[in-house]
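Exercise: predict the structure of this protein bound to NAP.
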Amino acid sequence: MQEKIKAFMDEVRSRNGHEPEFLQAVQEVADTVIPYIADNEIYNGKNILLRMVEPERLISFRVAWVDDDGEIHVNRGYRIQMNSAIGPYKGGLRFHPTVNASILKFLAFEQVFKNSLTTLPMGGGKGGSDFDPKGKSDDEVMRFCHAFMAELFRHIGPFTDIPAGDIGVGAREIGFLFGMYKRIQNEFTGVLTGKGLSWGGSKIRPEATGYGTVYFAQDMLLTKNDDIDGKTVVISGSGNVAQYAAEKTLQLGGKVVTLSDSGGYIYDKKGIDEEKLAFVMDLKNNKRGRISEYVDQYPSAEYHKGKTPWEVPCDIALPCATQNELNGEDATTLIKNGCICVAEGANMPSTLDAVHTFQDAKILFAPGKASNAGGVATSGLEMSQNSLRISWTREEVDERLKGIMKDIHDSCIEHGIEADGYCNYVKGANIAGFVKVADAMLAQGVI
Ligand code: NAP
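Solution:
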């Protein structure tokens, strides 16, 4: 089997050798799905996985825009349309200086499996730009978003490709992007998700990824007759996912002790309660400040510059910032300090080394494609509401979200339980996600 996996990866590497993040994501899927394909004759000899690693379409374009001083800047825009076997492409847009084809291809590839797991009819895609919204005025962000959409509009549509937010793309950016799409197309359609509540957005969409991650952690703990109540929780990031992961943790009785950004992390031994979290939300969402400012407001907390929070003792870790933010050494430290459960809110925040360390120690570990799927699932619910021209209540959406997270958890258990009873959630998520897409591809012929 190892030879088969190696031969497959050699072929993928020969085409994508310069894309380390993409190869990392493919390796993780190949390790679990190739043995499954070998055991299931219907998938044999069809090169299904080889087809799945090749994007259906990769779009790259120039985005020229003018700053407040009249200077012209050029950024690169992308949309990766990875797989549309089970529905139109769906996945976020990321605006961050590190964005490149490798990062977006890894995200688009993961998105295919994630969207399949939600049980909703959504294919996988991802896009974005190397534009950095940090330090830009609202007008500059608007001009960039308008210029970006002035090209992207021709590649997307409510039945073709429905982008959403991701790092650097929140409610403000979605508003500007939607405004330009509507202006060019002269139609009001659900072509983007994460819209404002008064113009087609779904209740609970901003909260969904963070809430869903915590629901998933709760489902995992339940398999051990345990729960979040009374647990100490370490969270990285302080953006959309981290904020709402923290909020749901508090609601379920957990104690959140850290948050971070790319500058470092804050450690509040007393716990980040509702009031402190409201301060962080205002700081990050309205003032666009840095997490280091938390200690000016709450001086008993500590700020650890240039570090990640994995050295802080905890029961549960929720990495909610970015890819590869938690390595093998961090995983060893977490386990040594008593961590029993890790649920990824971010996409691929754990390196392969870290994943293997968690699994070797047999602790509960959920990959992002399962545990953070609540965001895209609720985007799917936003699409349904837009099509039906109705708006569900907060309670209705939250119930659906909880149900979807539980279904994803059940799928992981179905395909991930190993001989000794340990649930390998990575294997479970990869196989469950693969089966639905592969079956659709087989039914549709060689495409
Ligand atoms: P966000 O609101 O832009 O927040 C991102 C957070 O991560 C910020 O605190 C940011 O700090 C930090 N961060 C970004 N790059 C970093 C780096 N290189 N090193 C350390 N910290 C870094 O984005 P988000 O929506 O919360 O997304 C966070 C993660 O969740 C991403 O992996 C995203 O793909 C994933 N995700 C998001 C959704 C969603 O619905 N939003 C759904 C599924 C998965 P700075 O402010 O210093 O940059």
